[in-house]
Amino acid sequence: MPTVYVLNGPNLNLLGRREPAVYGTATLADVERLCADTAAGLGHTVDFRQSNREGELVDWLQEAGAATAAGDAIGAVLNPAAYSHTSIALPDAIEGAGLPVVEVHISNVHRREDFRHHSHVSRVAAGVVVGFGVLGYALAVRGLHELGRHPTAGGLFR
Ligand code: DQA
Question: Which end of the chain is more exposed for a tag (fewer CB within 10 A), N or C?
Fold first, then answer.
C-alpha cells in the first residue's frame, strides 16, 4: 500500500492544549488517527511525523520525494505551521524533491494576523486546505489521493 506522508511543523505537538479557541481540542494523536483512517479507506498507509526543526522537515520532504519517485508513496500532506510564513528551505525542498504536497492549515490563516496571510509553501503546493479545523487533514489526504488518480484534472487548475 503506498504511503501518504503527513508532516507537521513547529508547536503542533501541543495541539489540544495550544490556543484551543484557534486550533480546537483534538490532539496530534487524534489527527494521526483521523489521517490513518482516511488513508486506509483509500488504500494507503500513513507515515505521520512532527518536528519543531526546519531542517528535519527538509530531510523528511526529501525522503518523501524519494519514496514517491520510487512509487512507494503518493506525496505529502504538510502543515508547515509558522515556517509557512518564514521558510525558503521548505519550498526549495518541495521543488527539489518534486513531489506533490497538499498544504494544510487548521485555522483560517486569512482571518488572522497579516503575517499569516502569506505562505512561501503555497507557491509550490499542489493544493491548499485552510480553515476546516483538523478535518482539513482528512480533506488533504483525500485531495492528494484524488490528484494521483486524476493527475491531468489537477493540472487544469494550475
Ligand atoms: C497553522 C497556522 C500558522 O500560522 C501557525 O503558525 C501554526 C498553525 C494552522 O494550522 O492553522 O502554527 O499552520
Answer: C
